[in-house]
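Exercise 3.2. Students should predict the tertiary structure of the chain below and write it as structure tokens, then compare their answer with the key that follows.

Predict this chain's 3D structure.
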Amino acid sequence: MHALRIYRTSSTAPDMAGSSATSFNISLATGNPLMEHPNSGFNIQWVAEDERRSKSDADMWANLSRFMEHQG
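Answer key:
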């Protein structure tokens, strides 16, 4: 199964009452390798070499379907 993570581009976005929150800006993420940002907290070595590629929608649906079949 592909490593699913919540992808954020900021942890200092303004929120209610002067607090901050995480946010996502597609223009900052476009063209960047997923899960390889030094601040992501993710170690790319955890992913098998042959799985280190972008996943298509079809790949993701196939993985989810296979996962759901094995849930009991």
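Discussion points: The mean pLDDT is 78. The first strand starts at residue 10 and ends at 14.
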